[in-house]
Design brief:
There is one protein chain. This protein is an all-beta fold. It has one domain. Helices cover 0% and strands 48% of the residues. The protein is built from no helices and five strands.
Length: 89
């Protein structure tokens, strides 16, 4: 799987029903797989086009289900206070 709960990720695939390519989402929890696709419940600050996870109908919502294969986690450089090889000026 590409993501885990708590990750920020961006959407790398766009479907005709949900044009959200490039949108940043927070991965909340795994959902049951469907048609061989591993799925995640995600949230977004701004409304997304998609399927409402409660009703299953097309909607503009801040929560939605998206395949793991369509997400790429955003990772940064680990921050640490331990500097072991600092250059001397």
């Amino acid at each position: 799987m590409n993501c885990k709960p708590g990750d920020l990720a961006y959407i790398t695939h766009q479907s005709a029903a949900a044009p959200n390519l490039g949108r940043i989402v927070e991965v909340i929890e795994a959902r049951p797989a469907r048609n061989g696709w591993a799925l995640w419940l995600v949230t977004s600050v701004a409304p997304m086009n998609g399927i409402d996870p409660e009703t299953g109908k097309p909607a503009t919502t801040q929560r939605g289900v998206i395949p793991d294969a369509w997400l790429r986690p955003i990772s940064g450089v680990p921050v640490t206070d331990d500097v072991t090889d600092e250059a001397v000026a």
